[in-house]
Structures are given as C-alpha cells and as structure tokens.
UniProtKB/TrEMBL annotation:
Keywords: ATP-binding, Cell membrane, Coiled coil, Kinase, Membrane, Nucleotide-binding, Phosphoprotein, Transferase, Transmembrane, Transmembrane helix, Two-component regulatory system. The lineage of its organism: Bacteria, Bacillati, Bacillota, Bacilli, Bacillales. This is histidine kinase. Residues 159-375 form the Histidine kinase domain. It is found in: Cell membrane. GO terms for cellular component: plasma membrane. Residues 125-156 form a coiled coil. It comes from Lysinibacillus macroides.
Length: 375
C-alpha cells in the first residue's frame, strides 16, 4: 500500500515545491521591484499622492509616512507577504488534495449506482482505479450469476410444478377406476395399484426436489469431523447404488492400493460421493463401468470418479457446479434432479478446504475431489 501511494506522494510534493518556488519568486519580485527596485519611485509617488490628496497631508508628512511604513518596516511587509503566500499555497494544495477525494467519491458513486461505465481516476491513482474497477467487475459478475441462478431456479420450479401434474393426474385416475370398479379382476387391480405406486414415488421425488430448492439457500454447512476409513466409505457408497446400476447393466468398482484414512465429516462427504456417483450413473452408457479410485499425493487425498458416456461440452462443464444447473435440460427428465447435487457437493468440499473439478473428453468424464490430509 505504501508503494501504491508513492506516485501520488511524489506528485503532491512536486506540486508543493513548484508552488513554493513560485511564491519565493513572487516575494522576491515584490520586494525588489516595488520596495527597492525599478517601481520603487512610482510606488512612492502614488502612495505620497494618496496621502496628500486623500489624507490631506503635506509633502514632508507624506514622505515621512512612506519612510516609516515601508522603508523602515521592510521585514514586517515581507513577513505579511510571505504569510499571505503560504495561505495561498495551503489553499491551492488543499484544493488539489480534495479534488482527489472528489474523484474517488465519484468512482465510488458509480460503483454504488452500478454504472456500466469504467471508473477513471488520475494517473497517480491508477492503482485505486484498478481496484475499484476490479470490485465493479466482481459485483457485476456476482449480480449476473445470482440473476441467472434465480432464473434457473424459477424455470425449474415451473418445470417441476408442471411435472407434478402428470403423476398426480395418473394417481387420481387409477384410484378413481379402483374406486368405481369394485369387482375389477385381481390382475388388473394389481396392475393399477403398481402403476399408482410408481407414480406416487415419482411424485414424492418431485416434492423432495421442491424442498431441496427451498432448503439450499437456508442451510449452513457445519462440519462434524472424525477419522474415516476412505476405502470402506467408497466401497459402501458403490454397494448402495447397486439397485440403480443393475437395470442398465452398469458396474461401479473401487480401486485403492492402500488404506487411506481422512479427517472429515463422514455424513457430508458421503453426500458428496453419492451426488457424484448418481450423476455418473445417470450420464453413463449402458453396460459401462464406473471406476472409483483414491490415492495420497503432495499431502492431499485425491478421489476420482471416472465414467464413460456422452462428452460434456466445455461451456457446460464450466457451469456444472453452479446451483440449479442441469446438464440434461429436458423438462421431464427422469435422471435430472433440481440441479443442486453438484453445487452442494462443491460447497461441502470447499468447507473441508478442498476442491472438486470435472474434465470430459473422448466420452470419458472424470470428477476429482482433492482434500487436504489435515482437513
């Protein structure tokens, strides 16, 4: 910060020096021109004429007044002149200094008013100009991101509200049939009950997504850490997803060459792995294998999920961890949730002091979670 203000200090000191030099030149000019210089005689004549005509003094009294006031009190008049010059210097310096405050204030006002124009300050305040513009750009980006997230949330709420009508209409229809046809054959009744149960489960899933959307902005992540055997946790996560893997002929295998123990919040970290694996299952090819691996490197624990499926475009990959963003934008997608799973995972990993990233190329997508060993 001291170095940043150096240019401003140098300019202000230079300005003060220039003003002082001008003041000394002016003082010298007044002293040796009006009092002891070429204009001394005209000045004396004017003063004596003033005394004779206005004050009604005779020639000798006027000359004596001039000698007493000016010739015998040169130091006094020089002091008066120097004080006046110092006041002028102080005023000019203060005006220049307050001008900087005014320009900074104008920049802050533009910042507060969310002006689209760039903030411009004098060259000696270029460091402050850069900082104000950086803050302005960050605020604009945050506002834009918040607006886009809000719009995505609103779109999802509309989609979910629309999707809720479909299973609800089916449930009401099948229950009405069951209620009206008391003597319906058992096989047909069992079929209708099974369909109604399936639609009810779908309806529950959609309602849970509504709650998830509402809860996301209200939750605060509080970690309850403990020592966790990572090998066992990842194998347990893979086993729990067997019912989702089996229908598509998919498999999830865990490859870890060493026993790894991490210090973390087990429940929240399990949620991270569940979200990543659920996403991998949804977007993997049928009969493909999802590889889960972990290792220690550079005082960090690396956990990777590799799946084979459609390559994620770079522009979508950048947004994959943003809240309410869904890779599958189909309105009635069975695989897509509220678009919060990976966003929540990202926040949990960051709360542990780690990072979560994704890469995708040649139909292979890799999610990597990095956690510090002392997390």
């Amino acid at each position: 910060m001291i170095n940043e203000f150096g240019r401003l200090k140098r300019k202000m000191i230079l300005q003060i020096i220039v003003i002082l030099v001008i003041a000394l030149i002016v003082g010298y000019f007044i002293n040796f021109v009006f009092i002891d210089g070429i204009l001394q005689a005209p000045f004396a004549d004017v003063f004596m004429a003033f005394c004779e005509n206005i004050l009604q003094l005779d020639y000798y009294a006027a000359r004596n007044a001039y000698n007493v006031l000016f010739q015998q009190n040169k130091p006094f008049w020089l002091a008066i002149g120097f004080i006046l010059l110092l006041l002028i210097i102080f005023y000019i310096a203060l005006s220049r200094f307050t001008r900087y405050f005014h320009q900074i204030s104008t920049g802050i006002t533009m910042l507060a008013d969310e002006s689209e124009k760039e903030i411009h300050l004098p060259a000696e305040l270029d460091f402050l100009e850069k900082k104000l513009n950086d803050v302005k750009n960050k605020l604009e980006k945050r506002a834009k991101d918040a607006q886009e997230a809000e719009q995505r949330k609103n779109d999802l709420v509309v989609y979910l509200a629309h999707d809720i009508k479909t299973p609800l209409t089916s449930i009401i229809g099948y229950l009405s049939l069951l209620d009206e046809a008391k003597d319906m054959p058992v096989e047909q009744k069992e079929k209708y009950v099974a369909v109604t149960l399936e639609k009810s489960n779908r309806l529950e899933q959609l309602i849970n997504e509504f709650f998830e959307i509402t809860r996301f902005n209200l939750q605060s992540i509080i970690l309850e850490k403990d020592l966790i055997p990572l090998n066992y946790m990842l194998m347990q996560v893979a086993d729990e997803f067997y019912p989702l893997l089996a229908p598509k002929g998919q498999k999830a295998i865990v490859k870890i060459d060493e026993d790894i123990t991490i210090y973390a919040d087990g429940n929240k970290l399990a949620r991270v792995f569940n979200n990543i694996l659920k996403n991998a299952i949804a977007y993997s090819h049928p009969n493909s294998t999802i590889e889960i691996s972990a290792n220690n490197e550079n005082n960090q624990t690396w956990i990777s999920f590799i799946n084979t499926g459609k390559t994620i475009p770079p522009e979508k990959l950048k947004m994959i961890f943003e809240k309410f963003y869904r890779l599958d934008l189909a309105r009635s997608s069975q695989t897509g949730g509220a678009g919060l799973g990976l966003a929540i995972s990202n926040e949990i990993v960051q709360a542990h002091g780690g990072t979560i990233t994704a890469t995708s190329s040649d139909e292979k997508t890799v999610f990597t979670v990095k956690l510090p060993n002392n997390s």
